[in-house]
Amino acid sequence: MRVALGQQIEEVGTTLDERRADYDHKIALRKMGPSLAEYRTRRLEAVKRTLLWLRRHEDVLRQRCPEMFGERV
C-alpha cells in the first residue's frame, strides 16, 4: 500500500508534536535527559526535512526515476 507524500509529511509532523510532549514529560520526571530528547527530536526533524525536499523535487524525480513511482520507462 502506498501512502501519499503529503500524508507522510503530516504523520511525521504529528509524531514530532507527540514526541516533544512525551519527552518534556519524561525530562520533568528525570526519566530522560534533555540532550537525548533533543537528539531524538533532531532525527525526526531530519526525516521531515527529507520528505519536504522530496516533495519540492518530485517533478524532477518523476522525470529522471519513473521506476520509483511505479511508472513504466
Concise account of the structure shown:
With 73 residues, the chain is an all-alpha fold. It is 74% helix and 0% strand. The radius of gyration is 17 Å and the shape is elongated.
Class from helix and strand fractions: mainly alpha
- Beta-strand content: under 5%
Distance separating the two termini = 21 Å
Overall outline = elongated
Quick check: average pLDDT? 95
Sequence stretches where pLDDT stays below 50 over 5 or more residues: none
N to C succession of SSEs: HHH
Helicity, as a percent range = over 70%
Write up this protein.
By secondary structure, this protein is mostly helical. The protein has one domain. 74% of the residues lie in helices and 0% in strands. It is built from three helices and no strands. Helix 1 packs antiparallel against helix 2. The two termini are 21 Å apart.
List keywords for this structure.
73 residues
Compile the SSE list and pairings:
Elements: H1 5-28, H2 34-56, H3 58-64
Helix pairs in contact: 1-2
